[in-house]
Write a structure and sequence with these properties.
about 350 residues; alpha/beta; Quinone Oxidoreductase, Chain A, domain 1; Rossmann fold; 2 domains; 12 helices; binds zinc ion
Length: about 350
Amino acid sequence: MRIPKKMQAIVYRAKNDLRVETVPVPSIKANELLVKVAVCGICPTDIKKIHYGTLPPPRIFGHETAGTIVKVGATVKGFSVGQRVGLHHHVPCLTCHACRHHAFAQCPTYKKTGITAGFEPAGGGYAEYVRVMDFVLPGVVPIPKKNSMVEGAMLEPVNTVLKAVKLLKLLKGDTVLVAGQGPIGLLFTKILTLNGMKVIGSDLLEARLVFAKDWGAQWTIRADAATFTDRVRQITKVNGGLDAAIIAVPSDAALAQAQQLLRGGGEILLFAHTKRGAISQQDLSTICVDEKQLLGSYSSDFLLQKEVAQLVFSRKLDVRNLVTHQFPLDETDQAVDLAAHPKPESLKIVVNQELNHSWT
Ligand SMILES: [Zn+2]
Ligand SMILES: [Zn+2]
């Protein structure tokens, strides 16, 4: 396979400054892979880094990546040129203290980014080629023939959601509030219902409540409805409140509201409160006396890779419906902008290098 020397990439040069540039195609070591990128999802964590300028430039972002292997390092076993694969940019060592406690996201190896298109490794999916380093090779997942690159690119976000759901001590038939019905909230709604839970979906956007119904929510309520609390209380009366609430929006008001509506011993899971330094007031007795547990979850769980691949590739969880907008590589800035300022009808947005034109 002929590999060019130069490629197009979207380089983050400063806060809110993404540029289409020509950069060298990364070279690989004997224990690494080179992948030609097909699809890369736009993830809120990338948007934050770009909009808040939290990391020093230059970087090439994009970590929900799927593509085709175009070069296999001499000592790499088990992969071949032409294979279509989904990538994980973080993989834990499985042996350190954090890993032995199953806290993979806190593992020092996991925190290193193992995929790059150049500069400081930052995922690299918004480029034509990425270098896949040795320590993330266990996170390279083959995409079956019948599945699309878009599906391959969704393995990582689906994994983060499944990981979070598994943290909750739920029983079949439990009622769970999912606050926020964007792409991630909808994945929560679907995965919970597939596991036998009943979901109340809430969002400020009416259109998202319609999506929530399609994705399995039994009830939907506008987050700003005056009757919100009454309705949730009524739905959950038999069991004394919500069994769990997933806060998939960075909203303290949503958290406070969910805490009130939770039954004693229930669980709240924070999934979108990723901004450091945000202080929130808590009545700690609700945690200590009422045992309303407050949990967090971040990033993916390596041990769930197989289960996630099975869920997505069997289309038991059909992620294709989640992708509403696709952009070519040189319009990545527009893709990021739309993801940052979602329209009622926009859900997951991806950069797809196999497209000739953007479609909206
Ligand atoms: Zn992501
Ligand atoms: Zn580790």
